[in-house]
Amino acid sequence: MNVVTTIADVRAAVAAARSRGEAVAFVPTMGALHEGHLSLVDAARRRGGFVVLSIFVNPLQFGPNEDLAKYPRDMAGDTARAAERGTSLVFAPSVDEIYRRERTIEIRPLKFADDWEGASRPGHFTGVLTIVAKLFNIVQPDVAVFGQKDLQQACLVQAMTRELDFPLEVQVEPTVRDSDGLALSSRNQFLSPRERKAALALPRALTRLRAAHRSGVRTGAELERVAEEVLAAEPGIELDYLAVVDTRTFKRARTVGAHAAAIGAVRIGTTRLIDNELLQP
Ligand code: AMP
């Protein structure tokens, strides 16, 4: 596995793979790789061909009071894990390599992104879509693999790809969880043992909501109430939002149809965690 840091080197490696007749699959990440990220590499490998993994903590998607400075970084561990999992190429650029000049352009999503993560983190999705568009143009993959863990992000990337005619497929892979049910996240390492126990109320609430949906509850408000009761019983957790939405618009779903998901965000101390469950018909 090669590790490169410049756009020119990625382009050369991808061109060489293409000249060998290989398709290109791409997994963008911010590093501190865990099994969730590595499951995306597995999915990319199942597509066959050349697997590019990027590691870039994108300053543009962090708010001024967010955790950019303390975001976990582990380049040595990351390259070892990526290589072990069969990644072909790691692209780990510096901030200067990516944002070389003064920025005059950004990709800002419309109303789709106003709520939930968009409301709690102003400017976040503009930062995400701008870096994803740049990485798509740098790597020019046939397929890019994202995690369902960040559902609103995955849906926005799919919308951008479709509406701006990027010639690639966006594939979304299921959330990988720890044995206790907590969705894997680079931010979990900030949780103390007691906070981690409190954090489990989020997946528990979503599981309870999904069970209520399976047993026939079909109104969004009623399903939300089921989850909110579970969260309210956990004093160590502060609710940011919990909502049943239509994944095509990310607007609240009054009644649950074919494209519904329950999404949630909580704060535990200084750590913010998100999770979701798709509500299959
Ligand atoms: P990040 O490094 O947090 O920007 O995440 C990079 C990619 O990994 C995104 O597509 C995430 O949705 C995905 N991802 C993060 N955590 C998980 C998880 N627990 N299961 C599956 N995918 C994940």
What layout of secondary structure does this protein have?
Blueprint: E1 2-4, H1 7-19, E2 24-29, H2 35-46, E3 50-55, H3 75-84, E4 89-91, H4 95-98, H5 117-120, H6 124-139, E5 143-147, H7 151-163, E6 169-173, H8 193-199, H9 201-214, H10 220-232, E7 238-246, E8 251-252, E9 260-268, E10 271-279
Parallel strand pairs: 1-4, 2-3, 2-5, 3-4, 5-6
Antiparallel strand pairs: 7-8, 7-9, 9-10
Helix pairs in contact: 6-7, 9-10
The structure holds adenosine monophosphate.
What is the strand arrangement across the widest sheet? 1-4-3-2-5-6
Provide the low-confidence segments as ranges.
none
Roughly how many Å apart are the termini? 42 Å
In total, the number of domains comes to 2
**What class do helices, strands and sheet pairing give?**
alpha/beta
CATH class of the largest domain: Alpha Beta
The gross shape turns out to be: globular
Bound molecules: adenosine monophosphate
Helix content: 25-40%
CATH topology of the largest domain: Rossmann fold
Number of strands: 10
What is the number of helical segments per DSSP (H or I, 4+ residues)?
10
How many strands, what sense, and barrel or not for the largest sheet?
6 strands, parallel
CATH architecture label of the largest domain = 3-Layer(aba) Sandwich
The CATH homologous superfamily of the largest domain is termed HUPs
Supply Rg.
19 Å
Q: Which whole number gives the mean pLDDT?
A: 97
Short description:
The chain is of the alpha/beta class and 281 residues long. The protein has 10 helices and 10 strands. The model has no long low-confidence stretch (mean pLDDT 97).
